[in-house]
Amino acid sequence: YGIDAHSANVTLTLPDAATVAGRIYKIATNVDPGSNYVKVTATGGDKLGGAGGATTLMTTSGAAGISLISDGTLYLIDGSYGSWS
Fold this sequence. Notes:
Order of helices and strands: EEEEEEE
Number of strands: 7
Strand content: over 45%
Number of helices: 0
């Protein structure tokens, strides 16, 4: 998914990990640094980044990307660039 957040904040909500086991989500962002953000949110009690992960990841980096894989229970981070927190 290519997400442009130059004119406004953007939130992307992922589906329940149990319904998309094995699916990979690659997210690339283009953000107006300091003004807007891109937020990736898990559904329900799903975690992003493993069992100890967060339910939301956000970036305000000018360009950032993240690859998430559903293992049927939560989302694992396959790789990322830019700053995510």
